[in-house]
Amino acid sequence: MATSIRTRRALELFATLLIGDGLISLLRPVRHSLLWWMPVPGVRGLMEWCAERPHATRAIGLAQVAAGLWLDARQYSSGPKRE
């Protein structure tokens, strides 16, 4: 199944965002969580939970980095594609 260039670009962008956000979560779990705190019921509770549990937030960040790297590796597993 051929994947369009737009889809591959979107997946690579998503992988890049996962890796970057994951690294920030690993390095600054409390600050990063509080930065995204906003008075929206679901978001506020999640970000407070993350800020109160920096080790869990780091684990989530590590999972994000791993997922981003896995997704990025899939983009190149069959070599470069040209369209």
Structure description:
This protein has 83 residues and is mainly alpha-helical. It has one domain. Helix content is 78%, strand content 0%. It has 4 helices and no strands. The chain has helices at residues 5-27, 29-35, 41-52, 54-76. The longest helix has 23 residues, at 5-27. It is elongated and about 45 Å long. The two termini are 14 Å apart. The model has no long low-confidence stretch (mean pLDDT 90).
List the helices and strands and how they pair.
Blueprint: H1 5-27, H2 29-35, H3 41-52, H4 54-76
Helix pairs in contact: 1-2, 1-4, 2-3
What is this structure, in a nutshell?
The chain has 83 residues and is an all-alpha fold.
The SSE string, one letter per element, is: HHHH
Count the beta strands. 0
Mean pLDDT: 90
Structural class: mainly alpha
Question: In terms of quaternary structure, what is this?
Answer: single chain
> Number of domains in the coordinates?
1
- Profile the largest sheet: none
Residues in helix, %: over 70%
Figure out the total of helices.
4
| Rg, Å, rounded | 16 Å
| CA-based shape | elongated
N-to-C CA distance:
14 Å
Poorly predicted ranges? none
